[in-house]
Amino acid sequence: MQSFLPFKTMLPANLFFFDVMVVVILATAAPSVSGQRYDYPTANLSTRWVNNAAAEHSVTYSDGSAIRAIVLRSPQTSYGPSFAAGFFCAPPCQAFLFAVFIVYTNSGGRITLPVNGIPQVIWSANRASPVGENATLELTGEGDLVLREANGRFVWSSSTSGRSVAGMEITENGNLVLVDQKNATVLKSFDYPTDTLVHGQSLLQGMKLRANTSNTNWTESKLYMTVHPDGLYAFVESTPPQLYYNSQVIPSKTSKDPTRVTFMNGSLGIFVHSTQPGSPDASITLPTAKSTQYIRFESDGHLRLYEWSGGEWTMVSDVIKIFPDDCAFPTVCGEYGVCTSGGGQCICPVQSNSNSSYFHPVDERKANLGCAPVTPISCKEMENHQFLPLTDVSYFDVGQIIKTAKNREDCKQACLKNCSCKAVAFRWYGQNDLDGQCQSVTEVFSLQSIQPETVHYNSSAYLKVQLISSSSDPKQNKMKTILGATFAAITTVVLVVIIFIYVRRRRKYQELDEELDFDILPGMPMRFSFEKLRECTEEFSKKLGEGGFGSVFEGKIGEERVAVKRLEGARQGKKEFLAEVETIGSIEHINLVRLIGFCAEKSNRLLVYEYMPRGSLDRWIYYRHDNVPLDWCTRYRIILDIAKGLCYLHEECRRKIAHLDIKPQNILLDDNFNAKLADFGLSKLIDRDQSKVVTVMRGTPGYLAPEWLTSQITEKVDIYSFGVVLMEIISGRKNIDVSQPEENVQLINLLREKAQNNQLTDIIDKHSKDMISNHQDEVIQMMKLAMWCLQNDSSQRPSMSMVVKVLEGGMSVENCIDYNFFNANSAISAQGNPSTYSAPPQASVLSGPR
Ligand SMILES: *[C@@H]1O[C@H](CO)[C@@H](O)[C@H](O)[C@H]1NC(C)=O
Ligand SMILES: *[C@@H]1O[C@H](CO)[C@@H](O)[C@H](O)[C@H]1NC(C)=O
Ligand SMILES: *[C@@H]1O[C@H](CO)[C@@H](O)[C@H](O)[C@H]1NC(C)=O
Ligand SMILES: *[C@@H]1O[C@H](CO)[C@@H](O)[C@H](O)[C@H]1NC(C)=O
Ligand SMILES: *[C@@H]1O[C@H](CO)[C@@H](O)[C@H](O)[C@H]1NC(C)=O
Ligand SMILES: *[C@@H]1O[C@H](CO)[C@@H](O)[C@H](O)[C@H]1NC(C)=O
Ligand SMILES: *[C@@H]1O[C@H](CO)[C@@H](O)[C@H](O)[C@H]1NC(C)=O
Ligand SMILES: *[C@@H]1O[C@H](CO)[C@@H](O)[C@H](O)[C@H]1NC(C)=O
Ligand SMILES: *[C@@H]1O[C@H](CO)[C@@H](O)[C@H](O)[C@H]1NC(C)=O
User: What is its EC number (predicted)?
Assistant: First the structure.
């Protein structure tokens, strides 16, 4: 059987983002002639430019920054942000970079001076060693681009001599390239990113974005962002590097191809092991571009998206979010600074009640610059090492765990024995602090004070401090006394803090469900108070829909639109709730609706999900809203999205997860009709070793696989339901539709009949001319795939990864399909109400008609 429609051809728009063609027209640098564009995107060999205010395209901005452009490509059509390369300086304009920057040009292509449109540097060659006035840049006859100071001192070169460079050019998307005679790229600035990405630019595995130290000091700071085979990571440099953010994807394929992260319009796409265009394996959603955008990795460790709007650059998104708040960024309070949650204030780790402290602020007036030990830690006097304990304080890096130390004492001892250990943080979940995690820290960046009930773990930090040796110094005895007093004081402080926190927490705890203290790892969903959710949904006023377990309301948390699902207490037991939170919270995939947070207060159970603007699939395929029929391409993409989401649940996440309630109501659509699976309330985790589990019958009539009747349930039930959904998408009706003539009420029965009589075209959605006339063959193939999924014998059904392969054109549908699929749903639907189902059907119904 023919495979059909390779996936690649479905999304031509994506091709735009890859390997942006370098169109070199070496002869276009036309000087300005009235009526002609003022554009100079290329430069030839043996040209030398002097960094001088008298240079041809020299512009000084209102804030004092200046540029001297060498190549510039203005927008093809009109005025707006343009990419240029040349010299750049920030006020007071003594140090210059050779850089690529975005300037604003008028409709004639000339650089103009919008009041707030200061040029934005997106790449630079010499960030660590800026040059001065009269420095030179030369594209030598050998094809090397060389930057020198006015006195001839060498600063930077492209090291391309002998590689037959023929010219330099700036591309439409801001890539500075050196090209050879054949227009082939010899070197491009996109391969050496600094701290910024522009549309179409990729960060490949191994490349780094490095934040600059500050606005005025452009040298690389310790923070960097990089791509590993399984996703995007951000670290602060130390030995070993300390991880503070990652956006991990579980790779579905293995290959030697590098993983990359590409800045696309509307997302940061993560492409695992893929050099081919196609859809990303995961992505970080961004606001779609209304104009030119760039993303900069900044000196505070944030990744921010900027957009040109209303005559200035505005920050439109703080791209990486870290749980629970900004205190989890590594340099938020400098070294050794403690960030207090919520307020975001910085304090030095001090002992109150005592004048002696082990740390002092680096700058009294700027608390966020951090703290330094009063006595530096010396490896020569390890016997004088002690710990300063900090209760309810945690450390961001969970990368260095001392596995052998499970309890607090072992953890501290392990650190005392190793001089490169500067602190430990001991983290435990639940009551048992004898079985926790010992994080060792070799270089102490910001610490954060935590509220255990928010983050769902307890943590204490122990900072290593150096005591002054007691022998010679007369101060020593005093020191000793102080220390004695100090440790008594510490104990008191710790007690006071504990009591204080206990009292503060008590109120909250009284409201909390006593059994709800389950373990949640960092990065897991946030816990919200009921009050907060009531507020953000405007008292649950905007109802989005109703599902088997409760109603869904629209809400807004900060700027983010969310969907708040209020589970009905009576029916949603605690067990299911915990399962749902734990299950959904731990998995993330582009085709699965993201759980943002939850609330569990008294009998209230709420889940906060990302908002899906186009609602559920049933609204679109059953023509509930007189919508125009979806075209085949959209339906195809939706099917593929569902398949990928399910495939992830079944085969790719750490614990195999069966959804058990696949139906159009549980498939949600975003603005672009990307489909995501929702509602894992019925999920049962299936152990990888144990392929079958026995479970209470669940799900929705119409979508139930035959084996529900025998209680031998595997994830293959989802594949059956997927088959039903597939048929519904193709035929534009519900599986069980009582408004149809009696013989047609059941779509699956109808399918069997039509398949046997070779009349499959009869059941294609009549609304869609596109499907009937333009894509009939593909639709028939899709029905065959559906029938494969609907096989009675669950072992005959394909796995979800096979389904994805078929959909992507890598495999064809099995030939020996048994058309005699039994429809379990006919039995159950007889009971009427097809929307919810909670009790197992009666025996007589179970053995009903065949
Ligand atoms: C580059 O060289 C070509 C001829 O090889 C010439 O036509 C063009 O004007 C030159 N461009 C510049 C900017 O000098
Ligand atoms: C740069 O060169 C120009 C002309 O060669 C000279 O007049 C000027 O003083 C120089 N500027 C500096 C800062 O050296
Ligand atoms: C460079 O590319 C342009 C357009 O693609 C083409 O017209 C030109 O002939 C090419 N130049 C060389 C030297 O191949
Ligand atoms: C810039 O920052 C680096 C450390 O990040 C520092 O070593 C250097 O002295 C700073 N330069 C200036 C001019 O402040
Ligand atoms: C980005 O996408 C949006 C909608 O998808 C579109 O309106 C906009 O023009 C695009 N922007 C750019 C810069 O391509
Ligand atoms: C350095 O970083 C700051 C913010 O992180 C940014 O505003 C500034 O433009 C950067 N400077 C350069 C030359 O990239
Ligand atoms: C702390 O120092 C101040 C003066 O610097 C002194 O008045 C006070 O008594 C000291 N407190 C303790 C607890 O030593
Ligand atoms: C000391 O700690 C460092 C960093 O955690 C580790 O690499 C090293 O192996 C440790 N040394 C010993 C002897 O345990
Ligand atoms: C924190 O530890 C205390 C005492 O061990 C325990 O009662 C509490 O449940 C823990 N909290 C969390 C969130 O783990």
Answer: 2.7.11.1
Q: Taking Cα atoms as reference points, which of 77, 98, 76 lies closest to residue 89?
A: 98
Report how far ligand 4's centroid is from the alpha carbon of 217 (Å): 6
* Mean pLDDT (the chain, rounded): 80
- Asked if 200 contacts 215 with a C-beta cutoff of 8 angstroms, the reply is no
Considering the entire predicted model, what is its pTM?
A: 0.60
Question: How many angstroms is it from 83 CA to the middle of ligand 3?
Answer: 22
* Tokens (6 digits) for 719: 């594949």
d(CA 615, CA 620): 9
The three-state secondary structure class of 69 is strand
Known binder of ligand: residue 565? yes
State yes or no: pLDDT of 664 exceeds 80: yes
Q: Can you tell me which atom of ligand 3 is nearest the CA of 182?
A: 14
- By the 8 A CB rule, do 619 and 627 touch? yes
Please, what is the end-to-end C-alpha distance for the chain in angstroms?
31
| Ligand positioned closest to the Cα atom of 486 | 7
pLDDT, mean of residues 502-516: 51
What does the pLDDT look like over 181-199, one tens digit per residue?
888 999 999 999 999 999 9
Determine which residue's CA is closest to atom 9 belonging to ligand 5. Answer: 290
Q: Which numbered atom of ligand 9 lies nearest the CA of 519?
A: 14
> Which residues have a catalytic role annotated?
661
Q: Are residues 577 and 566 in contact, defined by beta-carbon separation less than 8 angstroms? A: no
Closest alpha carbon to 400 in 360, 427, 440: 440
Does the beta carbon of 756 sit less than 6 angstroms from any atom of ligand 4?
no
Three-state DSSP at 529 gives coil
Q: Rounding to the nearest 10 degrees, give the CA dihedral for residues 835, 839, 845, 846.
A: 110
Q: What is the pLDDT of residue 163?
A: 82
